[in-house]
Design brief:
The complex is a heterodimer of chains A (about 110) and B (about 110). Chain A has about 110 residues and is an all-beta fold. In chain A, strands 2, 4, 5, 6, 9, 10 and 11 form a 7-stranded mixed sheet that branches. Classes of the chains: A mainly beta (about 110), B mainly beta (about 110).
Chain lengths: ~110, ~110
């Protein structure tokens, strides 16, 4: 399988639940990203990992917790979310941080918090 | 405050005509600009880019123009085809991209037959 794969595609969770989003890439890329797309808002960068090390945390609330066990996998652990966290969460990867045009995005996880 | 702005949420163009999508930015440190295209239920895919040292980049039916003094860029699609109907995102990066890409809200382009 090639490209960036995100699971699940859709997720509905209660505010007291704990869930995780998964992202996997088979492109040999070294940088991975989490973006959030809310309705009528730009894609917002949440986290950046380069060679498994977190390099950016864009003031994201602690109820979102990323994990990057290796360069091919990226997780976003969710707990005690709020309804306003409902959004499309997109994972992307690139060869490295300077590879601006090489972002490959996954299809996203549509998250609904009830 | 949005650093990358796409002020037109949607644009409708007749098939065969030219589509012009606009994007403005506020951060003078941005030195690389990109356009991504997104179909429903899919992630954005890279379309075309331009470095700040250029004012035009062309790839087939797609041309991106950059006006640095106005902090404005535009994407021209000619001729427009039904398959071009999608959401187009403008994105920018600064300083080699270490901070990731900054995106606009997107413009939904609808090509009418």
């Amino acid at each position: 399988e090639t490209g960036v794969t995100q699971t699940p595609r859709h997720l509905v969770m209660g505010m007291t639940n704990k869930k995780s989003l998964k992202c996997e890439q088979h492109l040999g890329h070294n940088a991975m990203y989490w973006y959030k797309q809310s309705a009528k808002k730009p894609l917002e960068l949440m986290f950046v990992y380069n060679f498994k090390e977190q390099t950016e945390n864009n003031s994201v609330p602690s109820r979102f917790s990323p994990e990057c066990p290796n360069s091919s996998h990226l997780f976003l652990h969710l707990h005690t979310l709020q309804p306003e966290d409902s959004a499309l969460y997109l994972c992307a990867s690139s060869q490295d941080l300077t590879d601006n045009y090489g972002y490959t995005f996954g299809s996203g996880t549509r998250l609904t918090v009830v | 405050d949005q650093q990358v702005k796409q002020n037109s949420p949607s644009l409708s163009v007749q098939e065969g005509r030219i589509s012009i999508l606009n994007c403005d930015y506020t951060n003078s440190m941005f030195d690389y600009f990109l356009w991504y295209k997104k179909y429903p239920a899919e992630g954005p895919t890279f379309l075309i880019s331009i470095s700040s040292i250029k004012d035009k980049n062309e790839d087939g039916r797609f041309t991106v123009f950059l006006n640095k003094s106005a902090k404005h860029l535009s994407l021209h699609i000619v001729p427009s085809q039904p398959g071009d109907s999608a959401v187009y995102f403008c994105a920018a990066s600064a300083g080699g991209g270490a901070d990731g890409l900054t995106f606009g809200k997107g413009t939904h382009l609808i090509i009418q037959p």
